[in-house]
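Key idea: predict the complex, not the pieces.
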Amino acid sequence: MSLADYDAVGVTLKASTYGVVWFLVLLNLVPLLFILSVSFMPPTEFFGAPHIVPYEPTLEAWTSGFAELKDNLVNSFLIGTGTALLALAITIPGAYAFARKEFYGKKLGFYAIILAMMFPYILLVIPIMGLWNDLGLYNTIPGMILAYQVFVAPFAIWILRDFFETLPKDIEEAAQVYGCTQFSAFVRVILPLAAPGIVAVGFLAFLTGWNDFLFANLLTTGTGPVPAVPVLYGTIGGGSGERVYWGKLMAETLIIGTPPTVLYLVARNYLENAFTV
Amino acid sequence: MSRNTTTRRETDRTATDPPEESMNATTDQTHGETNSDGDHIQIDGLRKTFDDGAIVACDDVNIAIDEGEFVILVGPSGCGKTTTLRCIAGLEEPDQGQILVDGEDITGLKSKDRNLAFVFQSIALFPHMSVRKNIRFGLDMNTDLGSDEKNRRVEDVAETLGLAEMLDRKPSALSGGQQQRVSLGRAMVMEPKAFLLDEPFSALDANLRDEMRVEVKKIQRDLNTAMVFVTHDQEEAMTLGDKIVVMNDGHVQQIGTPYEIYNDPRNRFVADFIGSPSPNLLECTVERTEDGLAFVSAFCSIPATDEQVGHVEDRVGETVVYGIRPEYLDIVPDGGAFVADLDVVEPLGDRDAIHLSAGGTSLSAVAPQGEVARGTDRVRIDIQTEESWLFERDGTRLV
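Result:
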């Protein structure tokens, strides 16, 4: 076979593309596989020589992990859902105003909101803790929900504003000509059309409330509504250097990761439907 | 739905109407007979500016629309025609002026309280609703009709527009023409006092556009509801309108029937804008010759008609603009007013547009198909001077 028949460049390119893709896939898959495998191992196995398939699989880590997390998962769920709902309630009207209305300081106000995203949140902990104490919001679920708005509201307004801006103005005007006030046109026409954006923002807001560690750890105490993530931190030993029960840690990690994954799959289906209107 | 062919009557004619009147009578002009006591829709001194007055979209717009009249607002883009329509619909708040419907001032009312239907250039259907829901939308929002009555109206309209099979589809499953039909249907079910259409067919391809034009005109005749139609296409304006409002730079230039606008433009802009190919406009000097007054340009001398003499007698030596439509330039075998070089022959179907140049000026004429043989390079042109117009250099009509 002569060299001319052989597309060296093409083959190399394809091979390296697949090489990179496989590398990235394995980079994610291998640790996940270990997490899964370790979660079914008894302590004697995960402290021994590393292997993938457990010799004596056990559900012990899962049952004890779940028992420990049960109440905290409910807290996390309430906080995540509350964060998403409050964020949507605040940012839908806000983003609509930034997209469609003219008002004094519109540009400046928007930049200020974006700037708030650049702020290192840890600095906010001190004033928020003091303020929440005074207001009786410390160590409460509403307090957590309110605190997360600091993270969530800016990006929600940003995403939703862009979404509202892409919706044709004519459709809104048509609704107004045919019997809507500006508000009912918004509810009947704009909101349904913005559904994909709203679902996406709601999901991201839920994820923020669900996964956050900083506020979750600092704004609650052991007697209060502690979300699931700080419990996971406790399982590592809270950084105390004690022996870590890896099996339980892995099981708890998977337990905490499951609800957002399910929610994502549900939301993804919805998004696809919503985009084909 | 009232078919009112019997209630139609001839357009009121005034003494100033041009001699082409006899042609006028052959078209079907509809003016509602119920409307002897005043105009149906009246727009008085409308002014609308944007950016705190920096941009004047329309100014001093006065239009009277009779019941059942098909009015076209036509003009180049940015002339204020769409702004005027949006003010009527309540989608823009005018700075000054009033809009009256049946004598009632609706200027400050919300769109939904005006009982006027608007058809958008972009069609603007609600993409998340079925065709049926789209058409019903206005009835659901703005009326207390029973469900049966609403359904009946929707079905009637869908039948008229040929949408009966598509009522349960989403707009995205329809073609552009069908979507615009739905948009018309959404307007028709409301049984509004007037339809306002903003370049409704500009997104459609040429054949479909012609088809929809005929359809809309027919629907308008059947319903005998006033219709205000915005377009930038002068041909569309001529074919559709009972009354044409020509706008430019935010001002109404002329209001009249298609024939009035075509034959008797009030100024140079209207003359130039209406008609294809565009009229010939020549800058000429008024001069006294042995045969009387004449308009002299670089390449020809055109004798003034008796009517024109009266207006330019005392303006010898001044410059005026002489306007003549291409169809009034005749190609003659000998004689004629001047000789021109033939540049291009553009077949238009039954006739040819002949593009000429003489003395550095471009001219156009129209001749029956094939009258000018291919390969001709010089032709003699005669001018039907009775059909000419005279304008001042600033564009106002002299005679």
